Write the C-alpha cells for this entry.
Amino acid sequence: MLKKQSFSEKIGSNLITVFMLVFLVVTLYPLIHVLFASVSEPAELVAHRGLILYPLGFSFEPFEYLFRNQYIISGLINSGLLIIGGVSVNIVMTAIAAYVLSKRYAKLTKFFTMFIIFTMLFSGGLVPLYLTIRGFGMYNSYASLIIPFAINTFNLIILRTAFEGVPASLDESARIDGAGHFTILFKITIPLVMPMIAVIVLYYALDRWNGWFFASIFLKDKELFPIQVILREMLIDGDSGAMMAGNDNADMMMLAQSVRYAGIVIGTLPVLFFYPFLQRYFVKGALSGAVKE
C-alpha cells in the first residue's frame, strides 16, 4: 500500500512538476521557433515580431533554394563519410588503448594514463598542429580530420573504466584456452560493455557532425567541406545572399532570413532523428561507465 503524501511532500512534488514543465518549455521553444520559421513565408517572417508559435503561412521555398546549392548536397555527403570513417577509426583506436590501460598486470599503465590525461590540460597549440599536418602531407584531405583526432582522452578514460568492470576471471579463462588479446577484446570485452560502446559512438558521431573549426582550417577545397562549414559560411559570412543572386534586393533579404533557419534545421535534424534510437544505450552506458565498483 502506498504511503500517503504529507502536505509538504505534495507542495514539493507540485513545485518540481512546475519547474520541469517550465524547463521543458524553455528547452523546446528554440527548436520549435527555428522549425516554424524555416517553413514560414519569407515576407511574413520578416514582418513578424515576437514569438513564433505556428508557421507564418507555409513555404518550402527556403529548402528548395538550399538544395539548389551543390555544396549543401556535397556537404551532407562529406559529413556522412567523415562520420563513417572517422568514428570507425575512433572506436577501434579508443577500444585498443582502453583495453591496454585497463589491465592491471600491464607495465607502466599508471604512467601512460597520467601522460594521456596531461594532454587534456596542455597541448602544443594550433600552429604546431597545423605545421605537423602539412609536414605529413595531410593538408586538404580527410586524413587531417581523422588521424590527429583518432582518440579523445575523455572518451578513453570512460571506456577504460568500463573495461575495468569486466571480471578478470573471464580474461584469465580466455587466455588459458589460448585466446589472444585481440580475441579477448573484440569477442569478450566489447560485447559485455556494448551500452558504453554505443555511448562512445554517439559522442564521437556528434563531434564529427558538429565539427567545423578544424575542417575550416585544414581543408582548402570547398568540395571537401562538411555540412557545418557550408552552413557557417551561409549563416555568418552571408553566403546565402550570394546563393540567391538572381533575385532583387528586397526578395533576397527576405528569403535569406528563411534560408538561415532552414540551414539550422538541416544541421540539427539528423541528430534529433537518430538520438531516440540510442537513448536507452546512452542512459545505461553512461551510468555503467560513471561508477567504478
Q: What stands out?
A: The chain has 15 helices and no strands.
